[in-house]
């Protein structure tokens, strides 16, 4: 048995920021989950649909692991990523880190983890591993999945070897904090403006504020997109509110990030962005409630109302990101 000592096994709301928090706290850098999410420029939007999908998907964050790469670059962390097509080599990479006294991050398919009661394939799931014995691995996952949990080594191997959308090749990673701790106040503006730029100028119409507008047009047609509205529409709402998003499709996390930033920087654009994202978060929760009602009642009018709210959200978030993009033009006092 090998276990890293001194690991804080707090579970967060979102899987990737939960794992990042475990790795960084172990080295003495304790940042809130909203701060990790925001400094990693994690907020986004995607309307994802294709012929091989049973039902459209609304996503509220950047691609898996992009947040980790963004955060490492922003804070000057040394990020070491190991990937391999060999299950044996993949486990050797992980065990070496644990045996050296370092928790390690893993990207895997949550379907194969013993403690997951909802058996849905998701290849972009991230956990922190802090120990193992001859049978089990000891992980930290989100609060809703139990925080400090264990899973069989066989299931973990299958989860890491899985192939499909968003999967990685036995990916593991470690983070090293520099000797001189980063000054958060200096990192806020680059993180916020990078996120705003990407949101305001998406390369395709499915992303950013344009993607939310597209969702506003297409959501009213969703009853015709499914043979099982009682299953698919409430499931879409559940994914927005409870599937590791922190609620409101990650907007609660970003709202709280901006609130923390506004305490560190005296900035009008930050306060405006925070106010508008607080409004947007409430509207996303309204959309989820309307989707649930539409599915339970088979009521197209609920979807029409959800589409109208989505158009409002697109406007609110566009205005918020325009305000936040002005951060680079001011010198906040703080």
Automatic annotation (TrEMBL):
Q: Domain DUF4872: where?
A: 155-324
What InterPro entries does this protein map onto?
BtrH_N (IPR026935), DUF4872 (IPR032369)
Residue ranges of every copy of the Butirosin biosynthesis protein H N-terminal domain listed in the record: 14-142
Can you name this protein?
Answer: Molybdopterin oxidoreductase
């Amino acid at each position: 048995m090998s276990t890293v000592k001194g690991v804080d096994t707090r579970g967060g709301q979102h899987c990737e920021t939960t794992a990042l928090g475990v790795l960084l706290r172990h080295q003495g850098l304790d940042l809130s989950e909203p701060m990790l999410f925001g400094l990693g420029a994690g907020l986004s939007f995607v309307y994802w649909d294709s012929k091989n999908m049973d039902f459209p998907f609304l996503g509220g964050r950047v691609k898996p692991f992009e947040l980790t790469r963004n955060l490492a670059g922003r804070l000057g962390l040394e990020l070491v990523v190991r990937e391999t097509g060999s299950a044996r080599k993949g486990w050797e990479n992980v065990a070496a880190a644990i045996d050296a006294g370092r928790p390690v991050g893993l990207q895997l398919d949550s379907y194969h983890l013993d403690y997951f009661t909802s058996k849905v394939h998701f290849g972009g799931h991230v956990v922190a591993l802090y120990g193992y014995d001859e049978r089990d691995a000891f992980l930290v996952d989100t609060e809703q999945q139990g925080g400090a949990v264990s899973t069989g080594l066989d299931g973990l191997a299958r989860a890491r070897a899985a192939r499909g959308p968003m999967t990685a090749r036995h990916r593991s990673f470690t983070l090293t904090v520099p000797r001189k701790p980063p000054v958060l106040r200096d990192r806020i503006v680059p993180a916020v403006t990078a996120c705003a730029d990407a949101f305001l100028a998406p390369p395709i119409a499915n992303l950013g504020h344009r993607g939310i507008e597209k969702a506003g047009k297409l959501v009213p047609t969703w009853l015709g997109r499914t043979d099982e509205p009682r299953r698919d529409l409430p499931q879409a709402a559940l994914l927005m509110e409870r599937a590791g998003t922190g609620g409101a499709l990650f907007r609660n996390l970003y709202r709280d990030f901006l609130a923390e930033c506004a305490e560190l920087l005296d900035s009008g654009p930050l306060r405006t962005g925070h106010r508008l994202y607080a409004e947007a978060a409430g509207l996303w929760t309204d959309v989820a409630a309307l989707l649930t009602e539409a599915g339970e009642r088979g009521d197209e009018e609920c979807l029409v109302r959800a589409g109208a709210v989505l158009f409002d959200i697109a406007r609110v978030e566009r205005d918020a990101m325009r305000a936040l993009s002005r951060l680079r033009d001011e010198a906040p006092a703080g």
